[in-house]
Amino acid sequence: MRDVRGDVVRRQLMADHGIEVQDVRTVCGYLIEGDTSSEAIAARVDDVFADPIIEHGATNELMLSSAFFETVPEGVVSVGFKPGVTDNPGKAATDGFLTLFPDDRNARIATYITYAFYGLPEGCDLQWLAGTLHNGLIERTVVATAEQCTARAWPQLDYPTPPEQVFIEPQPVNLEVSDDELESISTQGLLALNLAEMQAIQAHYRDPQTRAVRKAAGVSPDAPTDVELECLAQTWSEHCKHKIFASKIHHVDEETGEDTVIDSLFKTHIMKPTHDMQNEVDWLLSVFHDNSGVIAWDDEWSVCMKAETHNSPSALDPYGGAMTGIVGVNRDILGTGLGARPIANTDVFCFGPPDWEGDLPDNLFHPSRVLRGVHAGVRVGGNESGIPTVNGAIVFDDRYIGKPLVYCGTVGIMPRTLGDGRPSHVKTPVAGDIVYMVGGRVGYDGIHGATFSSLELTEESPSSAVQIGDPITQKKMLDMVLEARDAGLISCITDNGAGGLSSSIGEMAEYTNGCEIDLAKVPLKQAGLSPWEILVSESQERMTIAVRPEDQAAFESLAHLHEVEATPVATFTSTGVFHVRYNETTVAYLPIEFLHDGVPQLELESAWAPPEHLPFAPPKDADHNRLLLGMLQRPNIASKETWVRQYDHEVIAQTAVKPFVGVERDGPGDAGLIAPLHGNPHGLVISCGIAPRYSDIDAGAMAAAAIDEAVRNAVCVGLDVDKMAGLDNFCWPDPIESTKTPDGRFKLAQLVRANRELERVCRAYRLPCVSGKDSMKNDYGSGPDKISIPPTLLFSLFGDHPDVRFTATSDFKQAGDRVYLVGSSRQELGASEVAFMLTESGASPGIGGTVPQLNHPQDNLATYRVLANTIRQGLVRTAHDCSEGGLAVALAEMCIGGRLGAEIDVDGTGEGDLWGRLWGESLGRIVVAVAPENDETFRTAMKGHPLTVLGNVNETDALVVVDGDEELIASPVDALVEAWKGTLDLTGGVA
Amino acid sequence: MTPHVAVLFGFGINCDHETKAVFELVGATAERIHVNRFVSGAASLSDYDILAVPGGFSFGDHLGSGRLLGNRMRFAMRDALRAFVDAGKPIIGICNGFQVLVKTGLLPGPEANQSPDFIQRASLTLNDSGRYEDRWVTLEFDPESPCIWTKGMTRMECPVRHGEGKFVMPSAEDLDRLAANRQLTVRYVDPKAPADTHSSDSVLPYPISPNGSMRNIAGICDSTGLVFGLMPHPEAVYARWLHPNHTHPSSKAVGDAMDGWEGEGLQLFRNAVDHVKATRQG
Question: What mean pLDDT value characterizes chain A?
Answer without folding.
Answer: 94
